[in-house]
Amino acid sequence: xxxxxxxxxxxxxxxxxxxxxxxxxxxxxxxxxxxxxxxxxxxxxxxxxxxxxxxxxxxxxxxxxxxxxxxxxxxxxxxxxxxxxxxxxxxxxxxxxxxxxxxxxxxxxxxxxxxxxxxxxxxxxxxxxxxxxxxxxxxxxxxxxxxxxxxxxxxxxxxxxxxxxxxxxxxxxxxxxxxxxxxxxxxxxxxxxxxxxxxxxxxxxxxxxxxxxxxxxxxxxxxxxxxxxxxxxxxxxxx
Length: 239
Known about the structure:
- With about 240 residues, this protein is mainly α.
- The protein is globular.
- Helix content is about 70%, strand content about 5%.
- It has a 4-stranded antiparallel beta sheet with strand order 2-3-1-4, covered by helices on one side.
- The chain has 10 helices and 4 strands.
C-alpha cells in the first residue's frame, strides 16, 4: 500500500472516530435534556466549542438521523426530532415486548455477580435527587438488563427504539414519586431474575415499560412546565 493511500485511510478513520464521539456527545445532551425536541443544532458553534471541523459534526448528525434522533432539513439545518404522542405510544408497546423477551432470556442465565451489580445500580438511582441524575442511570440500567439477555439482536432493536423515546421518557419521570415507583419496579424485576423465574421476569419487565407509558400519558395530560434547564445556546437554536 502506498503511503498516500495509507494517509487517506488514517484520516478517514480519524474522521469516523471523531464523528462517533460527536454523535455520542449529542445523544448524551438529548438524554440529559440539554437538547430538546425542536432544538436546532448549531454546527458552527459546536465545531468551535469542540475545536474540530464541521465535517465530523455533519457525519454525526447523519448518524443520529438514522437513529431517528434528529431531522436534517435541507437549507435549514439539523433539528432534534419531534415525535407525536401516538408515535411514542406505538414504540412503547413494541419496546415492552422486547424488554419482556429480554427478561425471559436473562432469567435463564444471570449470575449472582450480575444480580449484585444490578442491585448496586438500583441503589444509585434511589439516591438520585432529580431527573437529570436519575435518567441517565435509568437508561444504563435498562441497557444492561437487555444486554444480560445474551441476544444481540434483541439488544440492537431495543436500543434503537429506546433512542427514539429519550425526549418522551424523561417527561414520564419528572415527578419524584414517579422515579420512586419506577425504581421499585426495578427491584421487583431483579428479584424475578434472581429466582430465575423466566415467566415472572418477562411479565415484570413488560409491565415496567407499559407502566412508564402510562405515567407518560398521564403527564402529557397535565400542563407542561419546563422539565430541565435549557441547553447552552452554543449548541442549539430554536427554529
